[in-house]
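Example 3.
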Amino acid sequence: MSSHFSIIESSAVPLPMENVDTDQIIPARFLKAVSRENFGENLFRDWRFDKSGNPIADFVLNDGRYSGEILLAGKNFGCGSSREHAAWALKDYGFKVVVSSFFADIFKNNALNNHLLPVQVSDDFLDSLLQAVQNQKDTPIKVDLENQTIQLLSTGAQESFEINAYKKMCLLQGLDDLDYLLALTPEIQEFEEKRVL
Amino acid sequence: MTSTPKTPKTTFDKIWNAHIAQSKPGFPDVLYIDTHFIHEVTSPQAFQTLKDRGLEVARPQQTVATADHNVPTLNQHLPIQDALSRFQVETLIRNCEEFGLELYGLGHPNQGIVHVIGPELGITQPGSTIVCGDSHTSTHGAFGAIAFGIGTSEVGHVLATQSLLQYRPKTMKIEINGPLSPGVSSKDIILYIISRLGVSGGTGYFVEYAGDTIEALSMEARMTICNMSIEMGARGGLIAPDQHTLDYLQGRDFSPQGEDWEKASTYWLSLRSDEGAAYDKVLAIDAPAIEPMITYGTNPGMGMGISQTIPALSDIGAKELPNFQKALKYMDLKEGETLLGKAIDYVFIGSCTNSRIEDLRLVADLVKGKKKAPNIEVWIIPGSKRVEKQAQEEGLDQIFREAGFELREPGCSACLGMNEDKVPAGKYCVSTSNRNFEGRQGPGARTFLVSPLTAAAAALHGTIQDIRQLL
């Protein structure tokens, strides 16, 4: 993974629905691929397209007034299946950040492993971001990973967010867990040799 | 002589601590993985990572593969019709050959749903760490193991290093006591818990299920409970090993034998949570209060006792209201409605939640000598080739055929609608699976999650029934 994550300044796409599960993000019938590419085409497939493949007008991704690299999502985003294809689909579509007041565990890990940044904010701050985007569709939001802040640029309102120091380093430096674990091969072998039962 | 007082530990603590290969402040723990299951859908990209980086599988003997998610459940002896599915299954075969991994693929007598075959072969063992690129890996926690679902990147990490970087989750104890009412099974217990906690009530926690209700349950019933831990967001769920666990495992293909068995079983029994061990959260459940459960909405938390009615809009908080209304619209149901007597179109008995021999026996007992309702389709999908064989040996297949059920071959099937087994749009399916998400069983399909008994009753009547009235 080579991309270095630092500051994202972008408009946002609002999807305030709570408990969006990974079956909605990418339905199982699109998981037959053996590569990581092109899942963005089927992101939110059954909310985005009707049975004949025509765009459903009132779904936010089909609303030309909204665009950007930031997805504003309702509470408990990414629950359900562990399919990493959900993170691949969001990333492939062009999202770099997902903002929510709560993330499901496995999705959060998968997102971080793909350098898609999950930003957890308070319910109130999420509401204020959603409100601002609804009032002005292209209002810019700034996500600063180094300083762990998310800011609504029009008003300056901001909140800091938590991210584990290790994961932050991975994103800033373009590293991943595999590099880290491979470097620990001697320690892992030593553990195997020492353990009883 | 004085002994040093030890801090009482939970089962979770004991297993986690025994698997930390490295712990460093500010960094996640390096958790050693004993057993890794893989399947065709979430592994190909992980193998690709290994190939791209020129890596080997670190411990090939600790990974076991099967094909389950994307396989047909009819004519498994023939080449897979769907080209993409065939390619995905063939990719698994090639990867297992290339990296030297055991594969229980189509046609193998050990093939089946990954969370069914692990336990039945004795690969799933107490005290171990078990992962798989599938959220229902929590099933294996029934044996007193730390078992959880991972993403494909992490599948690659385990293949390459037999380890994962993990943050220690918080612990929650759910204690269930008292006798279960007739007609109420372990599926109802877990649906009840999820309806109480909601789909994110367990997020960040590893759950331990305890109490005399749990202790009285068979291993297969325990697996159903641990299986659905993820549906409340929990990292996993486990039950301390006891005599039931030992009785189930003794003599299985991969269980330790002789002296090794004695040593292992003594260790396994020592994993019980110590008296006074601390949990971050404790919840008590009164088993006699649980009735047969059914879901009415589009997530597993939207469930109720079968005699209850769908909540009124006025009972739903403002934040939850859009979801609730969207769910009822999708399901074409009304607030305040009862589901009893509701006409249904399909019944699906299967999935890693409820496709084991005990599930099939429960269904067979109820439907023996009877016929399914004429207007519906009933699919019954055994969890594995071994379950299928056992069902044949017990004559259950005959009972199902006489009842007009379609008994198919093992796989995940209509639980996730990845193969051909899809419920058509707008149709109602009473299902023993684990997820009622929009489109889960096929685009537009409407799912009611229930126990095998409630599913069997629906199959006979073509409508939703209170099983207690039929016993």
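The longest helix of chain A spans residues 123-135. Residues 101 and 123 of chain A are 5 Å apart (CA to CA).
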